[in-house]
Amino acid sequence: MSKQLRFVRGITVRQTSVIGGAASNEGSRVAGVKDGQELASTQKLSEVEMEAVGRPPSVLSLNVPPSVPIHIKKGSLLSIFGISEKNWHSITMSLDFTNWFRRIVFGGYSFNYQRIVGTIPFSLLVSSKSRSLIWNQKGQKSFVTLALDGTDDWAILNRSALQVYTGGTLNVSLHRTPKYVNKSVAASLQLPTKSLTGLHSWNHRGFTMLSGRGQAGLVGEGSLYHIALKEGENVFINKRNLLALSVNGQTDLANCVVKYSFAGIDVSGESAVNSSLSGTKNLPLDINEHHESPPGGFPYYWHLTKLYINALVKYSSKIRAKIVNHFIGNQEFVKVVGPRSVLLQSSVSEFNSFSMPSTTTGKVETTQARKSSDYLNYVTIEKGKGAVFKSTPDFKETVSQIEKKN
């Protein structure tokens, strides 16, 4: 009897700030400054240098060569440095309403970008958050940089993720999010013909497409993670945490994402309709064409009543499924099929994030004053214990005690 050996490759999920490019070298330390990352200002550049800085990477540092335009989301520019005061006239800024009409139609609101270009090299600092009069951005946001070399395209599903982009041949376009899976893919996966992708909804009708050669800086909620899927591998992801994924053209999104529903709840509501009304399956929509009884007769109105009841039951089943899914919270998953790269965000933004005026009460809470021992700590290596962390009110006293022991 022969034995079959089966090997399974574990999918690695890792936190990342750079996709498709090598990370930049760390800046050298400056005298008198500790735990600070130096922002280099390069005077001789051939292409834009992007580096996400901070822990978590909430700021993007850019070194820009001459005559290369940078598009930055309005309200996110922190600083311009690396140039002398007499050369400020060499930097020009203008507003660029990128695909503004299609973004409104597809439910996107991030279309106002600043176009910055200079005749001399300069450096920028860009924040992961942009100031807005309507949207109140709460929580932590992190940067990830994409380096596109023309081999793979990227579909950005989060409508506010594209913070920075540059590249003479980089094409930024918007497309309608596919509602159904490609028929050939559905057949290969043994799924129904009209299987949902799970990405399309009334408030997320489109996605941003990056193609060509260039660089882009994306922001996501919380921490960002990268998953590399090989051929034949797949992963189940909550669609609200799916930030972006690599694709091969604008139609490839319908070939790699399939809606997944857990057992016990039929999100489509088809089974509830079929079990509630017998004999009403596949009812014709054109009554005058498919029904022989003339209008005004009892069979005609009976058939019309069954048709409306069928539609009402189907609509009620969908509402019931959405209510159940809202409380259970596990029906928003999609299956992503490899090979491709996937970017995840650990948190999701609140749906209702409008800024509301804060109200204050007359109650004043008192806090206890912190002592120096609350935030001064040191570590020692002890035999049998390893690294031991302790607090101290004064480093001078601690250093003298350690010297006496030695």
From TrEMBL:
Which Pfam family name is an example for this entry? AIM24
Highest taxon of source: Eukaryota
Record's keyword terms, sorted = Mitochondrion, Transit peptide
Please provide one cellular component term from the Gene Ontology annotations of this protein. mitochondrial inner membrane
Where is this protein localized, as stated in its record?
Mitochondrion
Any one of the GO BP annotations: inner mitochondrial membrane organization
The reply to whether Transmembrane helix figures as a keyword in the UniProt entry is: no
Q: Which InterPro entries match?
A: AIM24 (IPR002838), AIM24_sf (IPR036983)
Q: Which family does it belong to?
A: Belongs to the AIM24 family.
Q: What is this protein called?
A: Altered inheritance of mitochondria protein 24, mitochondrial
What does the record give as the organism's lineage? Eukaryota, Fungi, Dikarya, Ascomycota, Saccharomycotina
| Gene name tied to this protein | Piso0_003250
